[in-house]
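pinning this so it doesn't scroll away 📌
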Amino acid sequence: MTTRWPPILAILAGGILGAAQIGKVPAAMTTIGAEFGLGLAGAALLVSLFALMAALGGLAIGLAAARIGPNRALLAGLGIGTMAAGAAALAPGPAALLAARVAEGAGFLLLTVAAPGLIAGLATARDRATAMAIWGAYMPLGVALGLASAPLVAAFGWRVAWGALAALLALAGIACWRMVPRAPVAPTGAFQPMGQQVRALVAARRPLQVASAFATYNIMYLGIAAFLPARLESLGAGTGMAGVAAAVAALANAGGNLASGVLMARGVAAERLVVAGAVAMSVTAAGVYLVPSAIAATALAVLACGVGGLVPASCFAILPRAVPAPALVAPAVGLVMQGNNLAQLLAPPAIGALATIAWPLAALPLLAAGLLAALAGRALTR
């Protein structure tokens, strides 16, 4: 058997285009806020509501995806995400736009829960770690793509930019439909009851520690990805330039993901990478909102995202060996996504409210999140 890279890359494309629906919001946040009369905290809801479904039911959806089969879950997620993204681009008012964002988040959750298992099945044992490290970069690459739509927003408006990203997501869905083979669906009797699976995950403890590290990392990452354009604009940068700078920071995060894979291949423990990445990211991310220069803020954001990229790839590497049985991998992914999206739901409005008072206050939750992520990583080393 050889690794089937074409379908793996098709799944990666779906993940990147799904994550682009997160990055598109910061690129257009000030424009949408002005059109609909939303303040910075209100516009930040467009980021956080994307995470609502996962925050409420990530574990349950992970269990459901395992029962209907990962291929069906993948295609359903891409289909729901495409329709919701199109609806968001055509939304006549803030209520419809917020509802579309919730639906986009539901589709993205199905996609991200199903993808790791499919990729693992398409890769050989020798290539599996490499394939999972590549998959781990889907979020920063997608967010970078969404942020890179800022020049399109400046030239043609946010609706055109969002419509273009919806069309690209539809193309990724077609590619997955044509290229990704169907994975077998296990019979219902092969699954433990949901309560028993949850108890097993809690008893193992390490999945909870991974989920904690990933969620607190995401607070720091969103603290940059969601607000860097607005921060740079407050320091005198133009909308297009601010979006491009944020996209570069997101690409640096993807580089950190890949660097983590290289370091682990050379024998560096994933748990230690979590601690180092969390500490370094918290300090540099906080600096973004403390320095008075757009150039300095951009440099710190790129550095923070780069070193922070060590954390998610390491968490993905730890997770399969953190569960007591292979059947618990999918529920564990759902658990991690639930914690991650709960942070995504709560953090942007809180950071936005602090930034509305004074930008330096936005540094406080980033420092706290870095400390919590480092503590979770240290617990994993034990």
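📌 and the second one:
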Amino acid sequence: MIRSFSAFWHSDFGWKFRHSPTAILSALVTLLLVGAAIAAPLIAPFDPFNSASLNLMNGFSAPMTPNAFTGQVFLLGADDQGRDVFSTILYGLRVSLFVGVSAVLFAMVLGVTLGLIAGYVGGRVDGFIMRVADIQLTFPAILVAMLIFGIAKGIIAPQYRDQMAIWVLIIAIGLSDWVPFARVVRGATMVEKNRDYVQAARLIGRKPVAIMVLHILPNVLNPILVIATISLALAIIAEATLSFLGVGAPPTQPSLGTLIRIGQTFLFSGEWWILLFPAATLLALALAVNSLGDWLRDALNPRLK
């Protein structure tokens, strides 16, 4: 592992990373937030979703100010239920990251698979897949996600909706975000399938599936990585938007979007911290991941070398 890191650090890619303050700052912020989410049970002062530990008398406690009734001090204040805002952010960050990463992985697998098939097979198969992609692009991704989420929740029995809400959210966001992967992979596949190494693989009897997976796919990974990084920021924002609108993560598993929805209810009554800190965390995460994706796109672009 040390050798791999050393090889990366002294490579051309590592040199570009070391000389880009934006990339370094974005990577540090992303690692900090991801690490905080993973270690939430260890570093969170309270378990915000354990109802037995909540005290309603702590409700609306201002940041770093002793509560008038209990005298307890909360770093970032407490919400209307007396939950520590810092702890709710850490646990909400876990949900947002889990949904975002899972949705992007689902969209990537689906989009890359369809893109490889469309680019390699061509003909009517290519035309059908691309027409479906074109139709989906005419609708905003958030509306597609809301439609899929609504249909799925209508199919699921009411007693299982809260349990399945996170998985339905992942599928909804993933199905709304596969098109960029498919279009890019299709274009790259149409170029790569005419290369000599693909022709050689055909001559030795390689099956089409093996050629697509073992020969073409490794040569189209760079744009996939860039799209995945940028899509992660968009998926996190989409999840927050759906949760803010009340059609995302359930109250029992609140994400950053759910926390922002709760906070905006009390914004104009003076409890600004309930909204500000979750919103700032979401902004920092989305901006850091998006900036990292933009840098990757430039660093992996051969025209800019």
